[in-house]
Amino acid sequence: MLSFFETFLDLALDTAPWLLLGLLATGLVKAWIPESAVSRWIGGRGILPIIRGALIGAPLPLCSCGVIPMAVGLRRNGASKPATVAFLVATPETGVDSIAISWVMLGPFLTVLRPITAVVSAVMSGVLVMFATANEEGGDGGQTQTKKATSASCSTSSSSCCSSASKKEDKAATQKKLSAWKRLLSGLKYALVNVWDDLAGWLVGGLLVTALVMTFIPVGELNSVMESGWLAMFIMVLASVPVYVCATASTPIAAAMLYAGLTPGMALAFMIAGPATNLVTLGIVKRELGLKTLLAYLLGIVTSAMSLGFLADLIVQNWVGYSEPQLLITQQKWLPMWLAWGSVLLLLVLSLLSMYRKLVAYTSTPKSGVAMQISGS
Q1: Which of 91, 96, 296, 366 is the most exposed place for a label (fewest CB within 10 A)?
Q2: Which among 11, 89, 31, 24 is positioned nearest to 57, based on CA atoms?
Q3: Taking the model in full, what pTM does it have?
Q4: pLDDT (tens digit, 9 = 90+) per residue, 193-210?
Q5: Where are the alpha helices (DSSP H) in 178-290?
Q6: What are the angstrom distances between the C-alpha of 327 and each of 37, 110, 131?
Q7: How far apart are CA 61 and CA 94, in angstroms?
Q8: Directed axis angle between helix 264-276 and helix 247-260, to 10°?
C-alpha cells in the first residue's frame, strides 16, 4: 500500500505543473476567443466550415458535456449540421490543458499526434454527416430553417424577440469594452473555478487508476492483447463510446494502458472515442440534429478512432522505433521540486475550494417538490 501512495504522489508531482500551465492557457483562450466569433467562423456551407469547426474546437477548454450547450447554440444560430458535429467532436478530444499534461504522461510522440488526430476525426465525422444529411439540409447548411424559425418567432412575439436580440447586443458591446486586464481575470476565473470544478474529480480518479495499474500490474502484462489486432481495437473503441471521460482525465488512463502493455494506437483510440462520445452527448445529438446525423456521427468516431489508432501503431513500429509501448511514457524529471510541490499545493487548495462550493450549492438546493408540499401543508 505504501508503494501505491508513493506512485500516486510521483504522478501528482509530475503532472501538477503541466496541469497548471494548461489551466492558465485555458484562461487565455477563454478570455480572447468569444463565442460570438466562433459562431461567425463556422457558419456557411461546404467543407471549409467543417475544417474551421474542427480547428477552432481543438484548443478550446471544454469537456464533452461542457461543449454541448455551446454546440447547440451554434447550431441554432445558423451553423450547419456538419460544422456543428466537427466542432462537437474536436472540442472535447483535446485542448490546451490536455496537451500540457500529455507531454509529461504520454511523451512527445502521442502529445503531437493527439491534436492532429482530434482535428482529422472531427473533419471525417463532419464530412460523413454532410453526405448523410445532404438532402435534408436543402443546400443551405440548415441556415434557411434557422432563419425561418427566427423570423416566425419574431413575427409572433416581436417584442420578446427584439428584447432578446437587444440583450445579446448589449452583452457583446459590454464584452468589447472590457479591458485586457479584466478579460484576463475573467478567463483565469473561468479556468481555475469552472473548469477545475468539472475536472478535479475525474482527474484524481484517472491518477488513482494509473497508480493502481503501475503498482499492482507488472509492466507489459497485457502485451498479449496486441496479438488480437483489429478485434481488440474495435472492442476498445466500442467500450469507450458510452463512457464519460474528459480529455485531460483520459490522459492518465491512457498512460496506464501503455504501462500495462496496450499499444499506443489503442490508447489513442480511447482518447479519441472516450471524450467525444457519452450517453448524454448521443441523446443531445439525436434530439437536436436527428437520427441520421447521430448515426453518421457515431460511424465517423468509430471509423476514425480505429483507422488513426492503427496508423499510430504503424508509425511506432516502423519509424519511431519503440519496441515496447511503455517506453513512450516520459520518465525524465527535469522540473525543480519546489515548482512541483508548489503546483500540487496550489491544486490542493483549488480542490478544497471546489469541494466547498459544491457543498454550499448542495445544501442550498431546494428540497423536492413533494417535500416542499409536505412542509407547506
Answers
A1: 366
A2: 89
A3: 0.69
A4: 887 887 788 778 878 877
A5: 180-189, 196-216, 230-240, 247-260, 264-276, 279-289
A6: 42, 12, 41
A7: 8
A8: 160
